[in-house]
Design goal:
The protein is an all-alpha fold and about 140 residues long. It has a single domain, classed as Non-ribosomal Peptide Synthetase Peptidyl Carrier Protein, Chain A, CATH 1.10.1200.10. It has 5 helices and 2 strands; from the N terminus they run αααββαα. The protein has a two-stranded antiparallel ribbon. Helix 1 crosses helix 5. The radius of gyration is 15 Å and the shape is globular. The two termini are about 15 Å apart.
């Protein structure tokens, strides 16, 4: 299994290609949109390149889907905003995201702007972990 450091080192060239950033700008806490200038099309391109480079499959709304599956009753959003339960589950499931931004009033459409390099490192590591060790390769 690859370590987080190994995954980050393999991920950096992909981020450089897609976002045109220098390696020195790429840190686990870097938000792809706010810090590295990613746009929605860049996130799609990056996801495609990650799938090819790491031989994993990433679903379009994977973070959302994982959170919904863990919520009792699956109440993820209400009146266009994420529920408090959803926010709590996102904080638990994705500690790489800035918890100060997972606050009341957040909309589902706002989630991609919160994605960090560290989130992708952790996601890739979970995908690469054999199912017998608790990972998923879906």
């Amino acid at each position: 299994m690859m370590t987080e450091t190994e995954i980050l080192e393999k991920l950096k060239p992909l981020l450089e290609e897609v976002l045109g950033v220098r390696p020195a700008e790429i840190h686990p806490h870097s938000e792809l949109v706010a810090h590295l200038g990613a746009e929605s099309i860049d996130l799609l391109d990056l996801t495609f390149r990650i799938e090819e480079a790491f031989k994993v499959r990433i679903e379009a709304n994977e973070l959302e889907r994982q959170a919904i599956n863990q919520l009792p009753g699956g109440v993820f959003e209400k009146d266009g905003q994420l529920t408090e339960e959803a926010l709590a589950e996102l904080r638990r499931a994705a500690p790489e995201l800035n918890p100060a931004k997972l606050v009341t009033g957040l909309r589902k459409a706002d989630l991609p702007a919160l994605l960090t390099v560290g989130f992708f490192v952790s996601l890739i590591q979970r995908k690469l972990t054999p199912a017998t060790e608790g990972g998923t390769d879906a």
